[in-house]
Records
---
Amino acid sequence: MKLILAACLGLSTMLPFAALAQAATPATTTPPTNVRIVNPVTNPGHVSDINKPVHTPFSKRFDISFSSGSGSGSFTVPAGKLLVITYVSSDVGTAPGGTALFDLATVYAGAEVESHLPLLNNGVLLGQQVYSSSERTTIYADPGSTVTVAFLSSSTGSGGAIVGIYGYLVDASAASFE
């Protein structure tokens, strides 16, 4: 009798699980279909990342001459735009035996920030001590502020530098600019 009762109890507890297993079987659905957007090259579809503001590419070149061992150049960030500098490159020439320092000064959040970028000594070429730099970076500059690149050389003679600054501009009112 006990064996029959145990078997009945076991069977009664298994029935709900069997019913659940049948209910969990997925219903058949229509397979997904591809969406195709056909626009000519003259009228492409517009795609944008609504989580990031529009980035406007930016680049600036400086040709700086040294006199008495130093030289600089500057520009003003457009009003209403924040400048994000992402890459800086330079070639610097001084009198043989001279050394050089490269400084990039910006104003961010109302405070002046100086970034000293490393220069690689390439030796003497064409009668000049040549240095170069090529740096990925993230440097910010406030709207309407001045960005200055400056070089200081231990040589009191003449020299010069070519500098490229690259990045992008975003609306200063944007919530995120990275």
---
Amino acid sequence: MTEFVIRPAREDDASLLAWAVIEAARSHRPRGFWDLWVPDAEARLAFVERLLVEAIARATPFFGCMHETPPGAWLVESVATRPEARGQGLGAALVEHVLGDGRRRGHSDAKLSLMIGNSAAQRLYERAGFAITAEKRDAALDAAIGCPGVAQMSCPL
């Protein structure tokens, strides 16, 4: 596996992180939550970037960051890699990094959600020890973005 440097986000990372947040929300589909909420592509990217700059400045969690969920679970959100960087182990390195962070903080398990049908992400998470624990299907979500629902995955830390 290639070695990567994983570090805390800085304000000058906001543009790339905004892209990652939007892409992660799309999952394996061409549209996602942010596309529905802010239809104009430039406005969408600018909006998410502003939210991230503010979150980074305050050092508070935002989409693309990890945060605690009661009782003691570590929530993993918005893992995305650029297409040209895929297949090099970056996704696995990111997941292992956040799982290690959860362990260091004393959490007993990690949780995440992914869109049903995102097989590549599901395989990545399963290799890291996650298993599907629940599914929520919704016809409105399927009609809006072409995804039948969301699966919850959990992993002991």
---
Amino acid sequence: MNLSPSKPQANFVPDVDPLRALVNAAFPEARGAFDCTPMVGGASTRRYFRVRAGRGTAVAMFVPDGPKPEEVVKGDLSSRRWPFLEVRELLAERGVDVPKLYGEATAQGWVLLEDLGNDTLASYLVAHPHRREELYVRAVTDLARAQAALSELPAGSVVSSRAFDEDLLSWEMHHFREWGLEARGLVLAPEDRAVFDRVVARLARRIASLPRVFVHRDYQSRNLMVRKDGSLCWIDFQDALLGPRIYDLVALLNDSYQKFERAFVEARLDDYARSVSLGAREREALGREFDLVTVQRKLKDAGRFVFIDRVKGNGSFLKFVEPTIAKATASAARLSDDEDVSALSETLARVFSR
């Protein structure tokens, strides 16, 4: 099995004729009326368009890479149904709120979906900051329910075919070294590189050994849509896989795009613990898992932001590099009694001080 990231595609104007056919089928009352407007995208190669057909609206997703994953994974998915569609169907069947599917023309790169509006959790909170606690309590409890509902997966599920194993976790940490350090001129001295490699291998082994559950992989404020009734709809779940129960909580509560006081994070971890009926000792272990996975996840994110700038030509994430590293550093400080984390922290401190 090869381990490689998806590659960026050249910009081009997609053929909208297959989309037009999907829209006509989904909105026959529009009698062929069709308007398609590009929407602001994120870090992926996917492109989104808001479609208006008479009084109806929908969102069209164009995926030039087809079934290729947005994040690095093992294996070749080219011969199976798009992971986005497979995972969407699985989540919908298990009671998770996901966009409705109006039609698909995957051979031509198109999927037509429910129009959820423009209110991601991130943008909604800018206008309604007083609802932050309410919505984050909901996000945490939604996640706990989803993990329970997805505790057993269908035979052959794409989710169960991939996992945060040692190889993937180690690759992500070295992705940080390559892009978060070396690409910015911060090269590890030979002795520090030896420590880094050794510690990364041990941390990857430890995290990979944690019990595995369904993981969205990027469960954060830009990937949750706020509906008019205040419920949250999941998007960007195509890279779902198996991993630690804490992983999506790290993505949510140490979100690179949000700032939280530690008391807020601890309160949400308490909410999760109550939702899954953890005792006091288990809750304490959950907190240590949270900080351990934060170190790994946030360093990966920092490296990814630089990669997106240097390779994909999108510099909008660079402002999050240092705050993201700071989140990893803060979690590492809370694990000062952990030999591996301390060794990594000391190594990075030497690099950053040069």
---
Amino acid sequence: MTDIRENLGWLIGSIVTVLALALGWIYQSGVLNTLVGVAIGAGIAYYVQSRTQNRAWKREDAITMRDKVYGPIFREMNEILESMELVQSPNWEITSKLEKMRTQYFFYNMRRDLKDKFYTLTERLEKYQTIYSATHTLVLRQIREAVEKSHKIDIGVSSGQVRLGLEILKEAIEVGSITLEQAILQKTRPSDFIKSKKEEWREDLFTEVRIGGQLRDLNNFESLYEDVLNEIKEEPLYQEEEKQRKFLVEELKTFLNQIKAFIAVQ
């Protein structure tokens, strides 16, 4: 038993001695430094490669979200905003397109607060569509009655028959137009509209007014504007349309500004 212990001790001592000599040689020869350097370099390379790959994946995801979600939403809602700012009837088919966005897989990757805001805006736009259509019909009916009363002309339901057009004097190119119902919905006096166009173009412009397809002067148009506006301005529907439109315009502007950053990905 003693011999076995002595032999085992001798063997362990020999192994330790060999390891000590080997480590000493590695240290003295600089191999240890090389091995450590290689390990550190490999670690850094792996870290950099992982971060680069993650950035590439995130960029690819951002581009997909831009093309599939944020870009289309921005484009469609901006078109609605432009129409509402001019108090023109938006292309209501857009609301159907926006509604379909909810069924797309990528839509659910949209940032939560923006997704909630999107839901709210589409619901409000749907309600506003009903109010706008009813108000527009009300205004046209009042215009028809006023024109028939003052000019003995039945313009029917064609809004294009009551129109104020401005054109460049020599080239006869139209630079602006406004219908009577637009002027009333916008609360824009026709003479102020003409003034703004003259300031914008800084050209000699002439005004052409048609009522029921017949040429009339601006005073006729201004008079109709005043008569119809006085009749309709206290109507609850007319006031509610204006209130909701102004509120929605501000809400749309805020939302579009929030998603601009997501459509700037290159």
